[in-house]
């Protein structure tokens, strides 16, 4: 049995990774700011982080902030891992972080470089965005009478549990460096994703495509965040919407 630490272990991805590692018989330590007994703020590090990392063989680094700024927390984590003699650091990143000059992507790319230069055994997996993120974005946008979408932008959402399966597999293996990307099964226009969302939720909104300015938008429009040659995901956005409706129905019942 291996002791594996999962940062961000209560989050959208991390909790699924923890479930799969426990099912495989490993001792899993869940690190987050509020999860006892390993409640640690990675931005601060310190003795609590050293206690969390002690005797750990592998770290799966899922903790992140949508506002960016993941670099210092990762430096603190790497320093603790070096002191503890951790053998393997697994990092989840995003397809296109080296092609799209979006602030959050730049932060993820900087973390990739920290991991590569850490001196630890490492594995980096890049994936496209999760179905859940697309859902929450469309949910927020549809609060207005008109649903405004970035013009000529596509997306390739993937099921989070499929990514969790792959991360758990990688965590149980030897350091593999940069592994093959994971993309969702379909490259879709944002308009088609929005139409599916509106049908599934019974909402009626006019959809208006708005051209935007800036280098990041141009890179998204050019498909820098897509990986059509690695469309390995199985579950579609419609599959996600159907499952979300079933879960919501069970909660209401």
From TrEMBL:
InterPro entries: ComplexI_NDUFA9_subunit, NAD(P)-bd_dom, NAD(P)-bd_dom_sf. Transmembrane segments: none annotated. Signal peptide: none annotated. Residues 8-132 form the NAD(P)-binding domain. This is NAD(P)H-binding protein.
């Amino acid at each position: 049995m291996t002791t594996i630490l999962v940062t961000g272990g209560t989050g959208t991805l991390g909790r699924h990774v923890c479930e799969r590692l426990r099912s495989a018989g490993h001792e899993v330590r869940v690190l987050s700011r509020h999860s006892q007994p390993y409640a640690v703020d990675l931005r601060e590090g310190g003795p609590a982080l050293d206690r969390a990392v002690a005797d750990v063989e592998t770290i799966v680094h899922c903790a992140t902030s949508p506002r960016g700024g993941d670099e210092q927390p990762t430096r603190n984590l790497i320093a603790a891992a070096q002191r503890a003699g951790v053998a393997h650091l697994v990092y989840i990143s995003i397809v296109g972080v080296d092609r799209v000059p979006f602030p959050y992507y730049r932060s993820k790319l900087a973390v990739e470089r920290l991991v590569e230069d850490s001196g630890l055994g490492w594995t980096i997996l890049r994936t496209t965005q999760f179905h859940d993120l697309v859902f929450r974005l469309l949910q927020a946008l549809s609060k207005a009478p008109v649903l405004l979408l970035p013009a000529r932008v596509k997306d390739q959402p993937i099921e989070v549990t499929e990514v969790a399966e792959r991360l758990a597999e990688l965590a149980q293996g030897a350091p593999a460096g940069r592994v093959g990307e994971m993309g969702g099964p379909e490259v879709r226009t944002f308009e088609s994703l929005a139409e599916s969302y509106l049908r599934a939720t019974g909402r009626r909104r006019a959809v208006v495509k708005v051209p935007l300015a800036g280098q990041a938008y141009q890179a998204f429009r050019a498909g820098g965040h897509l990986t059509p040659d690695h469309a390995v995901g199985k579950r579609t956005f419609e599959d996600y919407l159907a499952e979300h409706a079933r879960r919501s129905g069970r909660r209401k019942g």
